[in-house]
Write a structure and sequence with these properties.
six-stranded parallel beta sheet; binds adenosine monophosphate; about 35% helix; alpha/beta
């Protein structure tokens, strides 16, 4: 059963989307890529004569409710994007009456699922021991089932279009699928496209295959990096993690970001790359600032010889050229994470150079997959999103899929 052929007429359809969009301090959406990504699925249901119940998480709320993470802030935007009024239910567990009253063509958005710890199954609070935490988790399990059952009760059909959370076995992303038979659970269009892009990168690898990983920390990407090492020909590591590698070799990094607990890990990655015959590329020069701001003073230094009082905030011109050369000679490219503090225009040049090289390689026939919130924000900032092969909405989900892991959100629909 696919979304394209399903008859939605007079059906109530609950759709898990990823509306975890970035908001500014006034609650205004700064990048609506994720909302736009779900529109084809949502419109298909409405045009097919169905009624929509939309559910999503936003951020990591610690309480119920937590106004900072309320989806009420995006109701107007979703309504304008869909071109129909959107009703709101301020408690995702109390939508029975509103869901029951929905008519064909009407839309109901549920409040942030993660206001409830039942959504993730991860108990809130501090635990003195692992045993205590385990006990809390076990106690939460039956409540998680009740929570899921309530969500499922609102609808006749379940659609998962939230690729960004497909790697989580949460109530709304996986467990809910158990309450629908094989003919009443579907992937949305976005999910279908994401799965196809991942399969292309996994099963149809044209070499050289280059993975480009950036961002602030090595610690959050260590597993992915280790896994990618077994698949790629070239690995470019950039962004803040550069300086952990430089320090591990005794380099001077001034006040650059560094994870001192990961120095050995950095050396280990280098060793593994060598053993596996993967070429590892790190920034040789850095554009540095004397404060973490766009308007600070700027100077250029070798990445392993940054003076006191200066901080590496972007790759330098030599590195831009070196990375661009590797990228342009690649046939499969995966990009996750910026080259520098791209949010500041004065430190966005390195990420721009990387993006330009990916665009050029793509024009010359390479398959390029860009994923992870910040790299997506990067290609959008530079207006290059339609010049790469595919921009994924998934960060962690994309990378786990690339590792070859079975994603619970995908397995649940396929009935695996
Ligand atoms: P991550 O969430 O780990 O993918 O990191 C993304 C963030 O890394 C972005 O907000 C960038 O501003 C930041 N970043 C990239 N390069 C650096 C750097 N050299 N120093 C500090 N932060 C950086």
């Amino acid at each position: 059963m696919t979304i394209e052929t399903f008859d939605f007429k007079d059906k109530k359809v609950i759709v898990r989307v990823d509306f975890n969009v970035p908001l500014d301090e006034n609650g205004k959406i700064t990048d609506d890529t994720r909302i736009r990504g779900a529109l084809p699925t949502l419109k298909k249901v409405l045009e097919g004569g169905g009624a929509l119940i939309i559910m999503s998480h936003m951020g990591r709320p610690k309480t119920n409710p937590d106004p900072k993470f309320s989806l009420s802030q995006i109701v107007d935007h979703v309504s304008a994007s869909l071109g129909v009024p959107v009703q709101f239910c301020n408690d995702c567990q109390k939508a029975q009456a509103q869901a029951a009253a929905l008519k064909a063509g009407e839309v109901l958005l549920l409040e942030n699922l993660r206001f409830y710890e039942e959504e993730t199954g991860k108990p809130r609070g501090e635990f003195a021991t692992d045993e205590e935490k385990k006990a809390a988790k076990a106690a939460l399990k039956p409540r998680m089932e009740e929570f899921t059952k309530t969500l499922a009760s609102y609808a006749d059909v379940y659609i998962n279009d939230a690729f960004g959370t497909a790697h989580r076995k949460h109530a709304s992303t996986a467990i809910i699928a158990d309450y629908f038979d094989a003919d009443h659970k579907l992937f949305g269009y976005l999910m279908e496209k994401e799965v196809a892009a991942v399969e292309k990168v996994l099963n149809d690898i044209k070499r050289p295959f280059t993975a480009i990983m950036g961002g602030s920390k090595v610690s959050s990407k260590i597993e992915i990096i280790e896994n990618l090492l077994t698949k790629v020909d070239n690995l470019i590591l950039m962004g803040g993690m550069t300086y952990t590698f430089m320090k591990a070799h005794g380099g001077e990094i001034g006040m650059s970001i560094c994870e001192n607990d990961y120095l050995d890990m950095a050396l280990n990655i280098e060793k593994k790359a060598e053993e596996l015959g993967v070429k590892l590329y790190l920034a040789t020069d850095s554009k540095c600032g004397d404060a973490f701001s766009n308007d600070c003073n700027v100077s250029f230094h070798p990445s392993n010889n940054i003076p006191e009082g200066w901080e590496g905030m972007d790759i330098g011109p030599d590195t831009q050229k070196m990375f661009a050369e590797v990228i342009k000679n690649s046939k499969t490219i995966l990009w996750n994470g910026p080259a520098g503090v791209f949010e500041f225009d004065n430190f966005a040049e390195g990420s721009r150079a990387v993006a330009d090289a990916i665009v050029e390689a793509t024009a010359n026939g390479a398959f390029s997959l860009v994923g992870g919130g910040d790299s997506v924000a990067c290609v959008n900032k530079f207006g290059l999103a339609d010049k790469v092969s595919y921009v994924s909405t998934g960060g962690g989900a994309l990378l786990e899929a690339i590792e070859g892991k079975v994603l619970p959100g995908i397995a649940a629909i396929k009935g695996e």
